[in-house]
């Protein structure tokens, strides 16, 4: 414990969705934290206690922790010099020229740490990386001769629940160096101090080697993506067979071995993790000569992308073959509710495609319009839901924000020109909407 009563001195390199939340959450667990990022505007926001993106609860947490002096932010890598544990939380996006992960930000973060590392320090990777990356980084750190060690501690947070997932995760995984049968217990002991609060609350902890820790993360995301594409594949069959995929999901979901979560058929998964992680995983498996083992992930990806096309096709079909000049309201742009993230968002993709086909698209979202506009300035955006719905000949619900799930079919009917809705997330009560005169179309429901 230091002179201010704070436990461990931590640095967090990279203050995006992952790093900013991690930094604030670690401060709330009693540590002294400095968050470092190259983006000056982002650091200025964070230092003022403002989240640079929408994440429920984060603004308040930042304000509290910055206010009590447990959390500060800097663009200067030297600000990490006092810390003894250094989290690497930078992005690993899809490479511009392929499916593999782009590791340039991880490499730059490690470069920035090397000059300040001291004996006893632990560098902790949180970024999602191809298996084998940690071993290579450990070798670089060893070569540098500081005596610092490496651990890999994958992050499983979900956007929208990021704070709660970080403070109280389902499990904590440490990948540490292995020499023969011996794992680096000293590195694990340092992480035990960092995670003392969740561990005391009974959070399961798994200590393993680097490769297993790296694979745990991509395996978890691959499984979740597969589960979603599985139910979307069932939706495609249900449609032609005259069955109902939501009832099918309820029925198989009662089997505890299967579980109901992540079985919601619809426009599919997006975001900054699932799509790029399954692509990077299959690219890495191919490099390792085992591409066939995860060949199914290509199909998972294809099934997923097909759902976006299917929504576009449903819209085109509802207008008898052409959407040119037809007024379409798109509800939702974020890749999921409670997030302003539009990376690989199915909703934004559908909006762009319909706009490209000549439809008169008006898109709305409670928090993601600014990010969507940054990527697709050609689209028409309307912040107010009522205004977005006004005069629509078709309504597409593509991100299940609560306010869209709770729309009143009678009141909504009074706004639109034609009562036609595509429920791209299977969240509307069809009987109620039909009773109000709506034609309701959805994935996997005859
Ligand atoms: C995911 C993992 O859940 C998390 O553990 C990991 O750390 C990062 O990636 P996140 O990207 O925040 O988190 O979103 P998640 O809640 O997993 O949803 C991913 C996508 O799947 C969203 O686009 C969501 O709309 C979609 N989805 C989810 C479905 O289409 N159907 C479902 O049943 C569930």
Task: Provide key terms for this protein.
Rossmann fold; 2 domains; six-stranded parallel beta sheet; 446 residues
Question: What does this protein look like?
Answer:
The chain is built from 18 helices and 16 strands. By secondary structure, the protein is of the alpha/beta class. It folds into two domains: 9-203, NAD(P)-binding Rossmann-like Domain (Rossmann fold, 3-Layer(aba) Sandwich); 227-442, Rossmann fold (3-Layer(aba) Sandwich). Helix 13 links the parallel strand 11 (327-331) and strand 12 (360-364). The longest helix has 32 residues, at 210-241. The model has no long low-confidence stretch (mean pLDDT 97). It binds uridine-5'-diphosphate-xylopyranose (UDX).
From the alpha carbons, calculate the radius of gyration and give it in angstroms: 24 Å
Structural class: alpha/beta
Structural domains: how many? 2
Largest sheet: 8 strands, mixed
Q: pLDDT below 50 for ≥5 consecutive residues: which ranges?
A: none
Which superfamily, in CATH terms, is the homologous superfamily of the largest domain?
NAD(P)-binding Rossmann-like Domain
Q: Order of strands in the sheet with the most strands?
A: 3-2-1-4-5-6-7-10
Portion in strands: 5-15%
End-to-end distance:
62 Å
- Determine the CATH topology of the largest domain: Rossmann fold
Give the proportion of residues in helices.
40-55%
Average pLDDT, all residues? 97
Number of strands: 16
Supply the number of helical segments.
Answer: 18
The assigned CATH architecture of the largest domain is 3-Layer(aba) Sandwich
Top CATH class of the largest domain = Alpha Beta
The hetero molecules present are:
uridine-5'-diphosphate-xylopyranose
Shape: globular
């Amino acid at each position: 414990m230091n002179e201010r009563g704070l436990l461990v001195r931590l640095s967090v390199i990279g203050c995006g969705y992952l790093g900013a939340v991690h930094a604030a959450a670690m401060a709330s667990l009693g540590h002294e934290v400095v968050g470092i990022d190259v983006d000056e505007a982002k650091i200025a926001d964070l230092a003022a206690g403002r989240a640079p993106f929408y994440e429920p609860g984060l603004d308040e947490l930042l304000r509290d922790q910055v206010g009590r002096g447990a959390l500060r932010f800097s663009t200067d890598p030297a600000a990490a010099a006092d810390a003894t544990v250094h989290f690497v939380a930078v992005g690993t996006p899809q490479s511009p020229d392929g499916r593999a992960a782009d590791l340039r930000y991880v490499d730059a973060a490690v470069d920035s740490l090397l000059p300040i590392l001291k004996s006893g320090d632990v560098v902790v990777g949180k970024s999602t990386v191809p298996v084998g990356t940690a071993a290579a980084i450990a070798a670089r750190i060893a070569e540098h001769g500081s005596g610092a060690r490496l651990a890999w501690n994958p992050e499983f947070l979900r956007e929208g629940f990021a704070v709660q997932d970080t403070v109280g995760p389902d499990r904590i995984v440490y990948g540490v160096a292995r020499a023969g049968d011996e794992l680096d217990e000293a590195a694990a002991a340092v992480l035990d101090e960092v995670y003392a609060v969740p561990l005391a609350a009974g959070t399961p902890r798994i200590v393993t080697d680097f490769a297993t820790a790296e694979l745990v993360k991509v395996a978890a995301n691959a499984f979740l993506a597969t589960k979603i594409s599985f139910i979307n594949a069932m939706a495609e069959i249900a449609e032609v067979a005259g069955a109902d995929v939501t009832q099918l999901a309820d029925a198989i979901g009662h089997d505890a071995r299967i579980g109901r979560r992540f079985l919601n058929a619809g426009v599919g998964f997006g975001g900054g993790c699932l799509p790029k992680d399954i692509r990077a995983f299959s690219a890495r498996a191919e490099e390792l000569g085992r591409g066939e083992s995860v060949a199914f992930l290509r199909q998972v990806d294809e099934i997923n992308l097909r759902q976006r096309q299917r929504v576009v096709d449903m819209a085109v079909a509802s207008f008898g073959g052409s959407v040119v000049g037809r007024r379409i309201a798109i509800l939702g742009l974020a890749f999921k509710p409670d997030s302003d993230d539009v990376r690989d968002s199915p909703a934004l993709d559908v909006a762009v495609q319909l706009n490209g086909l000549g439809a008169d698209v008006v898109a709305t979202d409670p928090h993601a319009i600014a990010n969507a506009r940054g990527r697709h300035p050609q689209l028409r955006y309307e912040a107010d839901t009522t205004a977005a719905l006004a005069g629509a000949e078709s309504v597409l619900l593509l991100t299940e924000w609560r306010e869209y799930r709770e729309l009143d079919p009678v009141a909504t009917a009074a706004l639109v020109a034609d009562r036609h809705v595509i429920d791209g997330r299977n969240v509307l009560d069809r009987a109620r909407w039909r009773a109000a005169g709506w034609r309701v179309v959805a994935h996997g429901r005859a």
